[in-house]
Amino acid sequence: MGVLVDEKLNMSRQCALAAQAASRILGYIKRRVASRSREGILPLYSALVRPHLEYYVQLWSPQHRKDTDVLERVQRRATKMIRGLEHLSYEDRLRELGLFSLEKRRLQGDLRAVFQYLKGAYRKDGEGLFTGLCSDRTRGNGCKLKEGRFRLDIRKEFFTMRVVQHWPRLPRKAVAAPCLEVFKARLDGALSSLV
Q: What Rg, from alpha-carbon coordinates, does the chain have?
């Protein structure tokens, strides 16, 4: 898979290498593309740079703020390259371009994977991955995921633990979506208030 992990399951090296590869491509785009318009830069960023920042991210999601910042810095540079947006703050640039921060995109991918799992897409491979409790008597969306108890602190950063805190905060309308496409559309609307 090309994912680097050290003996303590730390993903800092993977984050640094992903950011370095993405930054290198972004630098090439900056030097070679004369147009600084949204129509010129955004498709190139989405197709060539962002995949490096998100490759197998459900496996190696950044555990530390410094790792998150290293990755986010690449997207900051990419949005700042676009003519007319240089003077805006990062959040305003993202809003103007219709993008999410990389942190929200990781959460979006995690929640999509959970939805697919709960709908039965990964039953064979992910058996026992989550313990779910669905009820109409609870507040929130009615579907809670149960956290496991672990002896090692590193398990707190695993995919199954990351999504447990966010899933109950999703609106009932999103969780009850009949298919993944409807869930994606409803999740995008709800994400602005999640992180």
A: 18
